[in-house]
Design a protein that fits this description.
eight-stranded mixed sheet, alpha+beta, 667 residues, 4 domains, ligase, metal-binding, BirA Bifunctional Protein, domain 2, single chain
Length: 667
Amino acid sequence: MSAMFRITLPDGSVREVAPGTTPADIAAAIGPGLAKAAIAARVDGELRDIMRPFDGDSALALVTAKDEADALELARHDYAHVLAEAVQALFPGTQITFGPATDDGFYYDFAPKDRPFTEEDLPAIEAEMRKIIAKDEPLIREVWTREQLIERWKAQGESFKAEWAAELPDDEELTVYRAGKGEDAWLDMCRGPHLASTGKLDPNAFKLTRVSGAYWRGDQKNAMLSRIYGTGWLNKKQLAEHLTRLEEAAKRDHRKLGNEMDLFHLQQEAHGSVFWHPKGYRIWRELEAYMRRAIDATGYREVKTPQVMDARQWEQSGHWGKYRENMFVIPDEVPNVEDEGPLVSDDAQWMALKPMNCPAHVLIFRQGIKSYRDLPLRFYENGCCHRNEPHGALHGLMRVRQFTQDDAHIFCREDQIVEEVRAFCELADRIYKDFGFTYSIKLALRPEKRFGTEEMWDMAEEELRNAVVAAGLATEQYGWEELPGEGAFYAPKLEWHLTDAIGRTWQVGTIQSDRVLPERLDASYIGEDGERHRPIMLHRAIFGSYERFIGILIEHYAGRFPVWLAPVQAVVATIVSDADGYAEEAAAKLAAAGIRVETDLRNEKINYKVREHSVAKVPVLLVVGKREAEEGKVAVRRLGSQAQEIMTLEDAIAMLRDEATPPDLRG
């Protein structure tokens, strides 16, 4: 008789089972309720199929729908497989590639035989998916050899899958999932895990959302594929709530509102760079002024550094080797102006537009001899940077090629790190609350590929932990969490994840504790002992970039900025032309009081004017007619309200002056 396996359950009890036993068998042995509820298993911490037999002695935790994160990941992975099966059933000859789960759904990339897929195809694909779910096909895990896989994919005309199978690591176990039984079973190469069968999915809890193009393996040189996106949930209620959130998000889309409010535009002549209109740039200027007041009050010194630096500088910093594919590289020579011959010679020296500001700030630090008494030194820059993002990745203000960071670097001694990071945590907390955000804070730990010694990383990670504790933020209230493997190649980092008005999260602020760059760029100071020492370099930002932060603010406020931040804070609109003179006088007094004001003297009905300025999201409309002109009053209408309040012009000016005061200047 084969040796029995010892399976330890979460309550500490142990069950001895024969080889071939599955987590599903143990669930059934515990009780019919658990057997029905269990959808997967964690075996020694690894999420696995519930029908996969144990390999030996194991710790077992059964997964149910109450374990929502695991359950959603499984369901979305299964929806992706069902999508691929449905597409191949409806469109024979279509090749399949990859289909992962995402944060709110799934997608699958296809190589269609005849034409790219369109959104008109989605209803038929959804209907076929529901048929497959209704068939309740078992999803069976099988281990294949590389030769078997390649032969199978080539026989089926699946050139993309065959290419991928040939390149998988030699020591990796290659698994296939079979949907259904017999010769008609549908196969896909996949690590898993999956639910036990397609019938475990709710046929009313998914929706296909859109179609886009995608390059095979993300490389523009490769074939263009059709990517079908979907959203998938555990039940119909969750799907409905998600679709409501999407609808609300669509109303808040910063690209749509940016156009309606005349804030900015983008066009192909400058891929990934923003054309700021006067109203949009006013928001930028208000943010810039706000941030300058914040950094001036906390001991930062503002600097300005070059846009272009020699490639040798980027080689020394390590960015040339780690980041070159995202850099705009330019030759340091006069280009050929003749019609014949290459534009640039083989002898050209190379330079690059800066993708970040940190190396330049080290060069400023290195000018002159620094003493331990000079530290900490805090250099701040509204630094314009360029990163060569793929065209397909660009997204309004959220993902651009040219952007300006509210960037700063603090050069400090070992004994100053915790206090500097603690002070930054308090500064970030105050700023985010001024904009109405709540947030969670995460510690991103060392990645697999990194510079520096283990001792360096141990110290840097512990210092950031200690600083968050000192700031009182390492609590459940602030969503404190550690993220293994997600640090930068040169430093661990604290991340601030903002929650907006409709519950979405945005990773924005960061501070990183870096011992690597000062070493690589030979930054030093003279210590109390008279010897040279390396400073610690803290990289930090709060907005992240002005472009993205403004995009987040537009969507957070749905364009309805608080008065202090609104590009136009008030419009004086006339009911009749007899009030034009008074409207201009009122606007002049408002402007003299520091209010950003416009007049609307057009010969249009007042309801038309109200609608137009509502679309432009003007916070306050001051309506004046003949009576208001005679009495020195205004009718105040707030954005989004049908009511109006009659008050004297002086009272309206005082009210608006108070509301137009930035939050950091109040009191």
